[in-house]
Amino acid sequence: MTTFSAVHTPSRWWQSRVMRRFMEHRLALLGLSMITLLTLACIVGPSLLPYDSLSIDLRARFAPPLSGGHYLGTDPLGRDVAARLLMAGRISLLVGFTAMLLSIVVGTVVGVIAGYQGGWINAVLMRTVDGFLSYPSIFLLLALAAALKPSPVMITVIIAVTSWMEVARIVEAEVRSLKEREFVLAGRMLGLGRAHIMFREILPNAMGPIIVAATLTVARAILLEAYVSFLGFGIQPPLPSWGNMLNGAQQYLGSAPWLAIIPGAAITIAVTSFNFIGDGLRDALDVRHDTI
Amino acid sequence: MTKNEFLKSGYSRRAALRLFAAGGAAGLFAPHLLGRPAFAQTPPAAPTGRIIVGISQEPTVFNPLMAHIEVDDGVHFSMFDALFRIDPQGVIVPNLAAEVPTQANGGISEDGLSWRIRLRDDVRWHDGEAFTAEDVKFTLELITKPDFRAWRTTGHALLRDIAVVSPTEITWRMERAFAPYLSFLTETFIVPRHILEKEADPNTAAFNQAPIGTGAFKWGKRIAGDHLELVANPDYFGEGPYIEQLIFKYIPDMTVLYTQFRSGDIDLVGQAYITPDNYEEARNLPGRVVTLVPKGSVESIYLNLERPQFKDRAVREALYLAIDRHAIIDGLNYGVPGMTETFMPLQSYYHNPDLPKHEFNLDRARQLLDEAGWVPGADGIRVKDGVRLSFKNSTTSGAHLREQAQQFIQQTFAEIGVEMTIENLPSAVMWGDFWSQSQFDTAMVGITYLIGADPDVTNRFHTKAIVAKGGSGSNNAQYSDAEVDALLEEGSRTFDPEARRKIYFRVQELIRRDLPFLPLFANTLVYGHKEGIEGYVPNGNTRTESWHAAGWFRA
Amino acid sequence: MPAFLLKRLMQSVMLLVIVSIVGFVVLNLIPGGPMAQYALDPGMTQEDMNRLAEQLGLNRPLWVQYLDWIWRLVQGDWGTSFRDGSPVLDVIGRHVFATLLLMGSSTVIAVAVGTWIGIRGATHRYSTFDYLATVGAMIALSIPTFWFGLIGIYVFSLKLGWLPAGNMYTIGDGSVLNYLHHLIMPSTVLALVHIAIWSRFMRAATLDAISQEFVKTARAKGVGERRVILKHVVGNALLPMITLAGVQLPSLLTGALVTETVFTWPGMGRLFLDSLGYSDYPVVMGLLIFSAILTIAGNLIADIVVALVDPRIRLA
Asked: Which ipTM did the prediction report?
């Protein structure tokens, strides 16, 4: 299903050749600059806008974009959509990033151990991965979101729980192919500990695919957060997230379409950017991924 | 019809109710459940045409005795008959019974313990068999069978010695006097003995998937997940039916439901109706008739009185003062719902109109809290004896109008130094133990307090109904007051409407004083149907728009 | 081959058991449960709800409930829906057609459009078309499906009034045209992601094939370019495509869930959400097992077909 050629150049992955190839990838650069802009806007933006994301003004409900100083209009409670969108961006991006970190850590640890140890440890770990993968991820997401109280932290954990398996598979395949390499054998002969070999010798050489998987996992995590919150199981109001801004927007599709269009566009831009970056990294790091 | 007109007509209706409630005059209504307005079109001689009712939940339970939810009612009311029905004015009228038993006509004994019901002799099941008292006996006994997955058993469990006197007469004895039972019987549909007694297990009987009733419509076919088709029963003993097909179309999304009403794909918007934010637009749609119908439920911030924050009545009063109800009703809900101070529906004969009126007054609220010793802490949130005036509010997630109201109230509460955080839950979680075992701090909820139009609220306010303390009922606020307990017990034993009215007026005063819930508004539904559909009469005393589809016709 | 099959089968059964145990536990972890729907009924008492829970066997210890459930399942009894009292397989069966129709039509669209884009992209490598297709595919994979559906409804139903906002057909009009009319939007929305995947995949497969010897030979023999592509390239790329199709089989349930929700499509995804909402455990468990079986079967079938078609691959 997925195979990767090893990154076994003696130099480190971030050295100039990789950088140069990434910089030549126009889409990746576009993605990187869009994400940088978006992140900056989310961090700085709210303090520059004249409106607060939480202040309710029932006299200014449903103001269309570009009216009364509301660049992107107002929502059903008269709150400024622009301010909410940027605040929501903080939450959504943070949830996406943190969920990615969590799933990368879990997936990598599982993948490295399974790949290096082989045998029954591999069988148990990888069958667990298969088991998780054979669930409709929506089921796990919704069931867990219903079972646990939906706070941003919880949502992050839940998304991570449903996203680590792919990383584990990728890393396992990579490690399995790396562990027979000379430098690993050499390390073993030198009497280095198992953990040392796994995480100090093999892991750095498997970073390429992990980094690619990381960018794609952020993209996926943002989409998942949006979907769960859209269904009302995710981030709870008044805290805005891109997903929960869409929840309820459906109701006003006819009368206030901007409520649906704007957050959705933000999600698409963010996710596309991450996918562009991932694509660029894949080329630059020479990672092959057959099923894209 | 505007809301005001509707409320106005409520008063004249009360006068009518008093008249009917006093004696057996209700019998005059049969077989027509409704007085038809003079200007109405006349229905066709034979059933013609089809009406599609759009509903946002899927009916799945077709045996009316089994545990079911609101949306199944429409099917049951159309396919089955009960001994009695409740009309839009809250009057109980005969259905399968020939008259409504009262103490005056001897149907109910003076002590309220012996009941005698006389039945119609002209009723046939959809398969042609005659309906008799044996069917009634079978039905009442089936409900309390230990293995049968029955719907509610309140009242039925009190029955003793059910006896068939003749095919048209049945008697029983009650364990104790229970006036609300008549209302329970209006929602107890009679099932055919000759079919169900043959079944080894009534829970899984074939009947449950293709039922046979006595009602105006017969089972047609069901496309699961999509729609249910009922067809006219030309031999119906009562009024109608005037349409050939009655279709319940399942449209799980409120936006699509409304869109399809607008586009004309559905003829009539059923449960959960048109959302208030679409009311203004819907009203102006050409070729559509949109009506506001007061519902029996009251929307409120429901408090868990065992939480230390709420033990102090001053806190509850202050919170009530800090809710801008006019903004919620007129702003967020577009003026659709009605103002209320009580759990009793505005249109009820038992509604007490003289309760103290709510005012929105943040200064007064702050003053109350100051006087009661709740002083703002370092973070601005008030504290007293180590208790922070901070609590959670929960409701079903995804209910967008409620979520808006929550966030709005959150803001005004913050202005008086009260912190309300929002923690919404999926409905299956919200209404589980979290609700029934009183694990919430506060909930935003619309509660129907009455069964039919009966004013008994023992279930909601009696000390014995606190489930979290081992009681039985749904007193989830854990409200407890000795005087209210005594009044409720007296009320459920009393059959005379005038006497009951006094009792429940006092109950409402006490509840308004103690504020176990902070009323937001009396729920009002926005009904809609196409022009040219006649005979459509809303009935706030039932849970369904399709309580009388027999009378609908296309002009 | 038989030994391989046996091993795979054993593994699959183990996997199913694990999936069902985890599913059962997670499902029962959700507070609330099947009685929640009755909680606001004015006449329903706690006793009534306790009685119903008892009658449904929900008061038994979890492991007893699980063993009972799986024992019946082994005997072919998938249980009875709490909600409508029919056997779970019947309930699922009633929703299969709608999902198959939606998935089928969207697959047709995805394969047709995706194959065309992929081959054209490969034969016109680095052209504007290829570039746009690549970018387009990336964007298509990034758009939230539910949002795309909403925008579709806004444009084509609310504003233009061309397409219905939901449902599978108009009641009283069961004509093929009517079905098609209702199918256009949901199947296109659902196809979007799959077009992206198929086109990327076809592009890679075609590039792979073009570089191979037999294609070069055919070309050298003077066979027309079109024929070469159609016969050799597509024929050769078909193999991995079968694998992909097999792997995608389980999205029968999940893939359609979002689309079915937005377009109120009466399929299995919708059933799944409803059943989860009402805590109809037997149906949810049934759907989980159903989807797990599809996943496993999909992978297995893909492996076997590939092995049969391509003698170079040996099943080990």
From this structure: 0.84
